[in-house]
Design the sequence.
């Protein structure tokens, strides 16, 4: 692997590109949670409608675990999507903050080398 020059070793992050899918993921997660809660409400309202005979009990033994898995999985996935959205936003903000700190540090170094306090005349971003 050829590492090239020091300029080739830089890191570039498109923070808008990192952050842009966050709202869509959050919306999708909210929709999944809503669907899960709505489905649970409707199923609870219907109640156990399969009867208490041997066929009904066999159906219940297969149906209830699958139903509960579906409801739990739907809300879990909705929560995961919300968490991913939060973390993408945080990652983008962290990269922006790190870049701002690096720029401020570079300006401080330039200013100390020049003997002035502005490091070239422009203030660091806030």
Sequence:
């Amino acid at each position: 692997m050829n590492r090239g020059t020091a300029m080739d070793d830089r890191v570039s992050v498109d923070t808008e590109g990192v952050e842009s899918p966050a709202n869509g993921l959050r919306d999708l997660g909210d929709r999944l949670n809503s669907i899960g809660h709505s489905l649970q409400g409707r199923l609870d309202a219907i109640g156990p409608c399969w009867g208490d005979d041997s066929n009904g009990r066999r159906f219940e033994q297969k149906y209830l675990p699958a139903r509960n898995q579906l409801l739990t999985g739907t809300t879990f996935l909705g929560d995961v999507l919300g968490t991913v959205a939060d973390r993408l936003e945080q990652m983008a903000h962290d990269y922006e903050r790190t870049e701002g700190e690096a720029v401020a540090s570079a300006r401080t170094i330039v200013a100390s080398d020049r003997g002035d306090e502005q490091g070239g005349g422009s203030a660091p971003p806030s």
User: Anything to note?
Assistant: The chain has a mean pLDDT of 87.
